[in-house]
Amino acid sequence: MRTDRPAGVLFDVDGTLVDTTYLHTVSWWEALRQTGQPVPMATVHRSIGMGSDKLLDHLLGPERDRDADGKLRDAHDTLYAEYWERLTPLPGAADLLRACAERGLRVVLATSASEPEVGALRRALAVDDVIDTVTSSADAKQSKPAPDILVAALDQSGLAAERVVFVGDSVWDVAAAGKLDIPCVGLTCGGTSRGELAGAGAVAVYDDPAALLATLDDSAVTRPR
């Protein structure tokens, strides 16, 4: 094994490893509808990947009355929780994590999901034996596109920014990684197009974890920096 390869891989989880992007979209759409603030579902989808605070700013405007934000978040969380026992890994997700670990890379789940959500995501993936570090929303003051969750992932895993690659599915993932000069590999399985991810600065774009796994040894994930 080469010793000059990156020391670890940071993975976003929602929409990258587990098929949740559209579940979050529907849950936010319904939460907004219930509170009399309807937003087209396509517009909601474009915001998934941000934290709830920035998502609501993006959808409703930063000058809105924020008194209803807590009710909106609670409604989303309740609606989304109905899917937890049916969460499904995206194609090749578990095998990709295992392949990274087999190559000596530390596998880090850099997610800003809440701790209960993280538990549901980990159960869906069923690869705890190869995961080195997992973050949650409690580890970041600001959500993506701020890089706080990636900073927390680096701190907790003992990795340096210059020795990792981030794998994500949204332009917000690419933006967060760029603020730390971390290469971001984009996956289109969260519903964001190849052109959008590349345009945001992704160093490479694949359809899903299985597609990245198929060329893993020739990818940025294992390429020396």
Question: Would you give an account of this structure?
Answer:
With 225 residues, the chain is an alpha/beta fold. It folds into two domains: 8-19 and 88-218, HAD superfamily/HAD-like (Rossmann fold, 3-Layer(aba) Sandwich), CATH 3.40.50.1000; 21-82, DNA polymerase, domain 1 (Orthogonal Bundle), CATH 1.10.150. The chain has helices at 21-34, 41-47, 52-60, 69-81, 93-102, 115-125, 148-157, 171-178, 194-200, 209-214, and strands spanning 8-11, 106-109, 133-134, 164-168, 184-187, 204-206. Strands 3-2-1-4-5-6 form a six-stranded parallel sheet. The chain is globular and about 50 Å long.
Q: How are the elements arranged and paired?
A:
Blueprint: E1 8-11, H1 21-34, H2 41-47, H3 52-60, H4 69-81, H5 93-102, E2 106-109, H6 115-125, E3 133-134, H7 148-157, E4 164-168, H8 171-178, E5 184-187, H9 194-200, E6 204-206, H10 209-214
Parallel strand pairs: 1-2, 1-4, 2-3, 4-5, 5-6
Helix pairs in contact: 1-2, 1-4
Beta-strand content estimate: 5-15%
- Uncertain segments are none
Radius of gyration: 17 Å
CATH architecture group name of the largest domain? 3-Layer(aba) Sandwich
How many DSSP-defined strands?
A: 6
Protein structure class = alpha/beta
With helices defined by DSSP (H or I, 4 residues minimum), what is the helix count?
10
Q: What is the CATH homology-level superfamily of the largest domain?
A: HAD superfamily/HAD-like
Estimate the global geometry from the Cα principal axes.
globular
Question: Separation of termini?
Answer: 16 Å
Mean pLDDT: 94
CATH topology grouping of the largest domain = Rossmann fold
CATH class of the largest domain: Alpha Beta
Number of domains: 2
Element-by-element helix/strand order: EHHHHHEHEHEHEHEH
The level of helicity is 40-55%
* Strand line-up in the sheet with most strands: 3-2-1-4-5-6
GO molecular function: phosphoglycolate phosphatase activity
InterPro entries: HAD-like_hydrolase_sf, HAD-like_sf, HAD-SF_hydro_IA, HAD_sf, PGP-like_dom2
Keywords: Hydrolase
Protein name: HAD family hydrolase
